[in-house]
Design a protein that fits this description.
With 405 residues, the protein is mainly alpha-helical. Helix content is 79%, strand content 0%. The chain is built from 15 helices and no strands.
Length: 405
């Protein structure tokens, strides 16, 4: 898998795509495998407010958001591999804290460290892809990574449910620990460094601040980053409250992983389809179409939920979610690629800025949507409707300022 010796635009090996998917899937597995265990964790660690169990999800996103800022400069100065090693190590430490947590506070510290650690492999994977690809080829690789990565959300809740049958919630964190160790070993053994020594930037606070300023001030990068954060905010709101909605409000119980996995599968199918279509139709056309469809669908279904007092039939809710996640699945690979496109000369810092800002936005919005859960699906659907409309505005502004040949 000697990717560093290949020219940009070459055909990526399946192993490279799979490794990139593993490096990003640590985040998904850390979240989704935990969802069936949230009631048990809350009960065992003495959580009084039922909505506070959502912190087990949200705190990981906060750690992820704050830490991404650091990994970009580290990867540009030291190389991609050292940055990934640091992240994997912190993730392993956080997993150990969660395994042995005796209080909810210790659990949250461990989850925060898991987020801080998982940020490293995530940022490095984006920078690795940007080192090797550009334009539509980059969007295609990112979509293929997302397509494989989505297998994790499909199976992770079921894995968590099975682990709960043979042990308690701590066994899920043992599985996360194992994933971190395996990911670290695979990356160290098989992935070459893609940032040559002569391309590394010496550590300079002025250079780093300048690079951050460039990434934050570039209208295209900023516009698509904000759009991604807004859409992902609705997605985080869904993640924070989905166990309460599907597992408890609709009484699915042990069947919850099946329904959750179906939604994730729709997301993954769209990502794989996007990988095929993006080379023909382009990133902007697909992103705009997916965003528009999600906005219209969410507004219409929100009106339906109002008419049904916030409790539509399960078949209607699942139909809406399946279509929504299919359209959203078209967005993320394209949004990330469009945001990164002007930033090839500072790929590491740009990946950090894009990932951090999008995750900060999504964490705050997702937490607000999760806390708004009131025993109905109204807050969840309203979140998708409002935030996708705002994301459309952000995309339109980004395109207005994009230089045209």
């Amino acid at each position: 898998m000697n990717q560093s010796k290949q020219p940009a635009g070459h055909q990526a090996s399946f192993e490279f795509i799979a490794l990139m998917a593993v490096m990003t899937s640590i985040i998904a597995f850390s979240i989704d495998a935990m969802l069936p265990a949230l009631p048990q964790i809350a009960a065992d660690l003495g959580v009084a407010d039922v909505n506070d169990r959502q912190l087990v999800v949200i705190v990981l996103f906060i750690g992820l958001a704050l830490a991404q800022i650091a990994y970009g400069p580290i990867s540009d100065t030291m190389g991609r591999k050292p940055a990934a090693y640091i992240g994997f190590t912190i993730f392993i430490i956080g997993s150990l804290m969660c395994i042995f947590a005796g209080t909810f506070e210790i659990m949250l510290i461990g989850r925060f460290l898991q987020g801080v650690g998982a940020a490293g492999p995530r940022i490095v994977s984006l920078a690795l892809v940007r080192d090797l690809y550009s334009g539509r080829a980059m969007a295609k690789i990112m979509s293929m990574v997302m397509g494989i990565f989505i297998i994790v959300p499909v199976v992770a809740p079921s894995v968590g449910q099975v682990l709960l049958l043979v042990g308690d919630w701590r066994l899920i964190f043992v599985a996360l620990l194992a994933e971190g160790i395996i990911g670290l070993a695979w990356f160290a053994w098989r992935q070459p460094e893609t940032l040559r020594a002569d391309r590394r930037a010496p550590f300079s606070l002025r250079r780093i601040l300048g690079a951050f300023g460039e990434a934050f001030s570039h209208p295209v990068t900023l516009g698509y980053t904000v759009a991604a954060g807004l859409v992902f905010g609705a997605f985080v709101g869904y993640l924070a409250s989905t166990q309460q909605v599907l597992g408890e409000l609709y009484g699915l119980g042990a069947q919850f992983p099946i329904y959750f996995g179906a939604n994730a599968l729709a997301f993954g199918a769209a990502s794989m389809l996007n990988a095929r279509l993006v080379m023909k139709l382009g990133m902007r056309r697909l992103a705009g179409s997916g965003l528009g469809a999600t906005s219209v669908l969410s507004v219409v279904f929100f009106i339906v939920t109002l008419l049904l007092d916030g409790h539509p039939p399960l078949w209607a809710l699942m139909g809406y979610l399946l279509l929504t996640f299919f359209f959203v699945g078209v967005l993320f690979g394209n949004f990330n690629a469009l945001a990164m496109e002007p930033m090839g000369h500072i790929a590491g810092v740009a990946a950090a800025v894009i990932g951090s800002l999008a995750t900060i936005i999504s964490s705050v919005l997702g937490w607000a949507l999760g806390q708004a859960y009131d025993g109905t699906v109204r807050p969840m659907i309203a979140g998708f409707a409002v935030l996708t409309i705002l994301a459309s505005v952000s995309m339109i502004l980004a395109e207005r300022y994009r230089p045209h040949p």
